């Protein structure tokens, strides 16, 4: 290990993190969590209780608007077109078990264009396959060793482990994230899977929104303008626009999933686009599935200061004032109802607050039960590797670090089997 790499790892491993000249020490002590009261998803802002499905529909819109205005930002409508071009296809991949194809999706608005590449692995053994859709972190080429898969030309995060410098992808990174995308196992289970490099939709750095979909649409900005998490969610909806036209995919059985920051985007995509039939949050933490009021691990203040481009400017009003939030993340999960929802955590990922993710799913269960569904059939957090998947909401915590693993994928497919039929 080089001295520079050792120094960087040492810095990253420090418990106390300096952010913009201020010190941040995460709380990992349950006894230090402040007292809090969660806002009730089944009570309107004026105090009126929700007593019918029709009233829940109205309350859902109210909650959704609050999240738009105060956290993720208001996404613009889409009046442009999506032109699809298959740039690579192999009908006999995986010894004939799968079709692999990459589709260039060109989003056109007025005279401006944005390109994103959707990499699909589709089982040849069935028609109208259900599909898992999610973003990847470093380019489609990092999820496979296939030399014909597009090497992204978009901005990418530098990574000393992957030899990425100057924010440019290179051939040496082909296949470096293949463990996160177990294509062989997914195909064997009869599922299709699609992935897009998230940086092609909106590069993950703060430049006052002059790139990606923000540059495509050129929307006027204000305190509730959409930011990057909302932009990534919006991009997943544009991928759905295409998937509805692909004759090999069942558009009524598409699960949107994401890990970490992309888990935040996946849940917001599921909340704002009800075409997604299932939603999967993998270690999404603060700003995703975890309850903000717990102030455990990453907090609203820390995420806004470290990643000011992720959320709308209004969200900064709640830095170190989580108790003033007019919502909390259990209500975001409730917006997925009545569709199946899976929330997952990892034992060594205390930064993402596994208990807060679990408790959020427990609270969202109240809405599912109001709608006559099971929700999460557990009141106590399960032990590692003991998934609770027999309700409309599922949860597991696995041993290990902040990652998405084959074990996670296996549980998601088991959950999907319950609703879409085992293959």
Please identify the structural class as seen in this structure: alpha/beta
Query: What is the CATH topology classification name?
Result: Rossmann fold
Order of helices and strands: HEEHEHEEEHEHHEHEHHEHEH
Distance separating the two termini = 45 Å
The top level CATH class name: Alpha Beta
Average pLDDT metric: 94
Question: How many strands, what sense, and barrel or not for the largest sheet?
Answer: 9 strands, mixed
How are the strands ordered across the major sheet? 3-4-5-7-6-8-9-10-11
Radius of gyration: 21 Å
- List segments where confidence is low: pLDDT < 50 over at least 5 consecutive residues: 1-20
Structural domains: how many? 1
Give the CATH H-level superfamily: Alpha/Beta hydrolase fold, catalytic domain
Mass-distribution shape: globular
How would you portray this structure in words?
The chain is an alpha/beta fold and 423 residues long. It has a single domain, classed as Alpha/Beta hydrolase fold, catalytic domain (Rossmann fold). Helices cover 28% and strands 20% of the residues. A nine-stranded mixed beta sheet has the order 3-4-5-7-6-8-9-10-11, with helices on both faces. Strands 1-2 form a two-stranded antiparallel ribbon. α6 (228-243) crosses α7 (261-272).
What are the defining features of this structure?
423 residues, alpha/beta, Rossmann fold, nine-stranded mixed β-sheet, two-stranded antiparallel ribbon, 11 helices, 11 strands, disordered N terminus
């Amino acid at each position: 290990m080089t001295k520079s790499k050792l120094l960087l790892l040492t810095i990253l491993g420090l418990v106390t993190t300096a952010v913009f000249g201020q010190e941040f020490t995460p709380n990992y002590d349950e006894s230090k969590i402040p007292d809090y009261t969660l806002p009730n998803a089944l009570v309107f802002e004026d105090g009126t209780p929700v007593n019918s499905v029709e009233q829940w529909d109205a309350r859902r819109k109210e909650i959704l608007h609050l999240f738009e205005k105060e956290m993720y930002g208001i996404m613009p409508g889409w009046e442009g077109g999506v032109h699809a071009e298959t740039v690579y296809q192999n009908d006999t991949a995986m010894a004939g078990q799968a079709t692999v194809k990459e589709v260039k999706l060109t989003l056109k608005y007025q005279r401006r264009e944005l390109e994103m590449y959707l990499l699909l692995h589709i089982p040849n053994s069935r028609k109208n396959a259900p599909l898992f859709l999610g973003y990847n972190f470093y380019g489609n080429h990092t999820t496979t060793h296939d030399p014909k898969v597009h090497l992204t030309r978009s901005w990418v995060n530098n990574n000393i482990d992957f030899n990425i410098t100057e924010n440019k992808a290179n051939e040496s990174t082909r296949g470096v994230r293949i463990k996160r995308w177990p294509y062989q196992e997914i195909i064997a289970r009869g599922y299709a899977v699609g992935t897009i490099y998230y940086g092609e939709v909106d590069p993950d750095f703060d430049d006052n929104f002059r790139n990606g979909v923000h540059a495509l649409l050129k929307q006027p900005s204000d305190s509730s303008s959409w930011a990057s998490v909302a932009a990534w969610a919006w991009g997943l909806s544009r991928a759905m626009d295409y998937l509805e036209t692909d004759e090999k995919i069942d558009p009524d059985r598409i699960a949107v999933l994401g890990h970490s920051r992309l888990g935040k985007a996946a849940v917001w995509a599921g909340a704002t686009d009800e075409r997604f039939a299932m939603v999967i949050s993998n270690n999404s933490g603060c700003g995703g599935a975890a309850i903000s009021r717990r102030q455990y691990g990453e907090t609203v203040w820390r995420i806004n200061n470290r990643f000011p481009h992720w959320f709308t400017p209004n969200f900064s009003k709640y830095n170190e004032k989580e108790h003033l939030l007019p919502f909390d993340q259990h209500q975001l999960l409730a917006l997925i109802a009545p569709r199946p929802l899976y929330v997952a955590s990892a034992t060594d990922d205390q930064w993402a607050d596994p208990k807060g993710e679990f408790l959020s799913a427990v609270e969202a269960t109240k809405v599912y039960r109001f709608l006559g569904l099971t929700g999460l059939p557990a009141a106590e957090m399960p032990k590692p590797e003991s998934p609770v998947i027999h309700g409309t909401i599922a949860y597991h915590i696995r041993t290990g670090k902040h990652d998405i693993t084959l074990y996670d994928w296996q549980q998601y497919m088991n959950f999907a089997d319950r609703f879409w039929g085992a293959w």
